[in-house]
Amino acid sequence: MRVGRFFCANKDTNVWNKKEGVIFVKTECIREVLEKREHKMLSEYASFSDQSRGREKYMEPCTIRSCYQRDRDRILHCKSFRRLKHKTQVFLAPEGDHYRTRLTHTLEVSQIARTIAKGLWLNEELTEAIALGHDLGHTPFGHAGEKVLNKICEYGFQHAEQSVRVVELLERNGNGLNLTWEVRDGIQNHQTAKHPSTLEGQVVRLADKMAYVNHDIDDAIRGGIICKDDIPKEYCDILGYSKSERLNTLILSTIKSSFAKNEISMEPEVSEALGGMRKFLFEAVYTNPVAKGQEQKAQRMIEHLYFYYLEHLDKLPQEYRALMERGEPTPKVVCDYVAGMTDNYAIRMYTDCFIPKVWK
């Protein structure tokens, strides 16, 4: 089927001409055609675009894009998404172009989640929007930054909650991205202990784990933290001995176990192997003193920056001062600013604030 631009005096019909396999549709109703197609093509358990719970602020529907595609585009074009390319995934400031960053992790999660959603006939656009937005609230220096902000900020700090705060408030100079409820729910509940309301959100939750378990093994081997022989054989026998084999096993197991069901799951044996591999990574990589040798320095840097800006509110950018003027708690806004920094920007601000400059 091909959709072409339509010029016709008859405005009472959406379809003007239908011959030779070509259908011409009014450009102002493309979204409606696509929404109807979802009901014919997707699973009964999918989240249909025309049944979304909507946005907090009303927006005139796009004539071409579904509400979830529109959300995906808004996330893709926002500043917080671009900053992910300079935020740590696991290894702080690695020397080399092939280590993952928070951005490449996000893209891998999106690819895995879309593959699963396609195999289960779920809403791929909603899945992609959740995947692209799930880590927008991450701090500089990965989970090290998250831990210290959670400790020193009186309001606490969790990156999933911060990701929602980014899309609801911080982006677009305090106006937020005004995303649909389903996307925000998936972002809020993407961590292991949470339970998203949609199957698409559940897919992203599982794809996140698949992605980081596999690419963190890859990066740890590249960095000399572990070697292939260190990976427990009992898990490799089930999942596979290479990244592509493991991902293929995990994705196929999820599709097989979840097909035509109202819940996303994985075959028990495969799920246990994934859990075992994750536990191995915590012991061999995530708490490894070589891999994490710089974390304490990074945490002290984040702590010093937080208290510095808490005492020097005039140094905050205008958009953050405006949030305080609107009634947002001062410690929360300072936390927003520090959490939004990239690794390099945090180092630069720390240098400006605390390192004496040479007299010229």
Description:
By secondary structure, the protein is mainly α. It folds into 3 domains: 2-30, no CATH class; 67-295, Orthogonal Bundle (Hypothetical protein af1432); 296-354, no CATH class. 56% of the residues lie in helices and 3% in strands. It has a 3-stranded mixed β-sheet with strand order 1-3-2, with no helix packed on it. Strand 2 (15-19) and strand 3 (22-25) form a beta hairpin. Helix 4 packs across helix 9 (199-222), helix 5 (124-133) packs across helix 8 (181-188) and helix 6 (142-152) crosses helix 13 (295-311). The protein is flat and about 70 Å long. 41% of the residues are buried.
Keywords:
Hypothetical protein af1432; mainly alpha; three-stranded mixed β-sheet; single chain; 56% helix; 360 residues; flat; 3 domains
